[in-house]
Amino acid sequence: MIVRYLSMYNLFYKTIYLFDSREEDRKTMIKMLEMIGLGLVAIMILSFVGALQSIGIPIGASNPYFWGCAGGTLIIIMYRKRKRKQAGQE
C-alpha cells in the first residue's frame, strides 16, 4: 500500500506530493521522528541549564530556543499519538 504525503504547494491545480512512502518505510520515518525529538529534548535541557551559553544561547526558560524545542517536541508527540490512534481504528 502506498501512502502519499501531501505538500502544501499546488501547481496549476495539480497536487504535488513531497514523497511517496510504502507502509514498510513508515518504520524509518518513525525512527527519524524519534531521533529528532530526542535532539530537541537534549537542546531544550542544555539551554535550560545553561550548558549552551558559551555559543550564545541564553540561560533559563525565557529564551526562544527552549520554547521552540519544547513546541517541536510537543508537535512530534501529538503527531505520533494521532497516527497510533488512526492505525488502531483502521
Can you give a write-up of this model?
This protein is of the alpha+beta class and 90 residues long. The protein has helices at residues 26-49, 64-89; strands spanning 2-11, 14-22. It contains two helices and two strands; from the N terminus they run E-E-H-H. Strands 1-2 form a two-stranded antiparallel sheet. It starts with a strand and ends with a helix.
Q: How many angstroms does the end-to-end distance come to? A: 14 Å
Number of strands: 2
- Please tally the helical runs, counting DSSP H or I stretches of 4 or more residues: 2
Strand content: 15-25%
What's the shape?
elongated
Content-based structural category? alpha+beta
Mean pLDDT rating? 76
Topology:
Layout: E1 2-11, E2 14-22, H1 26-49, H2 64-89
Antiparallel strand pairs: 1-2
Helix pairs in contact: 1-2
How would you sum up this structure in a few lines?
The protein is built from two helices and two strands; from the N terminus they run E-E-H-H.
Considering the chains and any ligands shown, give keywords for the structure.
single chain; 90 residues; alpha+beta; two-stranded antiparallel sheet; 2 helices; 2 strands; elongated
